[in-house]
Write a structure and sequence with these properties.
The protein is of the alpha/beta class. The chain contains 6 helices and 13 strands. The chain has helices at about 50-60, 80, 85-90, 100-105, 185-200, 215-225; strands at about 10, 15-20, 30-35, 40-45, 70, 95-100, 130, 135-140, 145-150, 160-165, 165-170, 205, 210-215. The protein starts with 8 loop residues before the first strand and ends in a 10-residue tail after the last helix.
Length: about 230
């Protein structure tokens, strides 16, 4: 997948990467676009320092901005959420996050969101749909996206699972961690969540900083790198 020209990257005919280091700004985690027959969603929003590039990349996928119905937040950290407030003001779309992440975003907690790591301050914003419990379903058009609680890297980390072109696509933005006290991380939860992700047997993994992995073996091998006590793939 060529990201060198700063253009959206096609993953399937319905899923694109529209933001990230080489696509928008060097501080941004990956931003993904899901388009189910004109019903669209973004997965995370980056730091917000290159919104013009992000919008251009979205439009290059044939999406009108008014078709974006929601921003699906994987977790509260600034490289994933710093851009949410400005995007919401522009798009007027629904914001989705786990209920355990919502207070850090709504109160503008610069420590737990790691905004301080970037020398920045997060702009507080409201969360419209607060996911509770272990799993919920989000309707996008006539399709389903599953929101699955996967704590560890942060208390309310979520992975999103959907299908496209007959393949299971997993949006798990910070599979690699890190685990840090400022982030309210929990190593035991993290290890359980890694095993949960592995059990999902995704065909495609859309990660936050390490790119896109395609094929069940490549997805599994990447996740296994971070599981303690498991034999590492060769």
């Amino acid at each position: 997948m060529d990201r060198s020209q700063g253009k959206a990257v096609k993953i399937t005919k319905e899923i694109f990467q529209v933001g990230g280091i080489q696509l928008t700004s060097s501080e941004d985690a990956a931003i993904y676009l899901i388009n189910f027959d004109g019903h669209a969603a973004l997965v995370d929003a980056g730091c917000g320092n290159a919104q013009d590039k992000l919008i251009a990349n979205i439009r290059s996928c044939g999406i009108n901005l008014e078709e974006i119905e929601c921003i699906l937040i994987t977790h509260c950290h600034y490289d994933h959420t710093g851009g949410v407030k400005a995007l919401h003001d522009l798009l007027k779309c629904q914001i989705v996050a786990h209920e355990w992440e919502a207070p850090f975003l709504e109160e503008g907690d610069n420590v737990v969101t790691a905004a301080t790591w970037y020398g920045a301050k997060i702009q507080p914003f409201g969360v419209d749909l607060k996911i509770s419990g272990g799993q919920a379903e989000i309707n996008l058009g006539n399709r389903i996206i599953k929101a699955i609680h996967a704590p560890g890297h942060s208390p309310g980390s979520i992975v999103y699972l959907t299908e496209s072109e007959g393949m299971k696509v997993l949006f798990a933005q910070d599979v690699h961690g890190p685990i840090h006290p400022d982030l309210r991380s929990n190593e035991e939860d993290y290890q359980r969540s890694l095993k949960l992700m592995l059990a999902l047997e995704a065909d495609i993994l859309c990660e936050g900083h390490y790119g896109v992995y395609q094929g069940k073996k490549k997805v599994a091998d990447f996740i296994k790198k971070f599981i303690v006590g498991i034999k590492r793939p060769l």
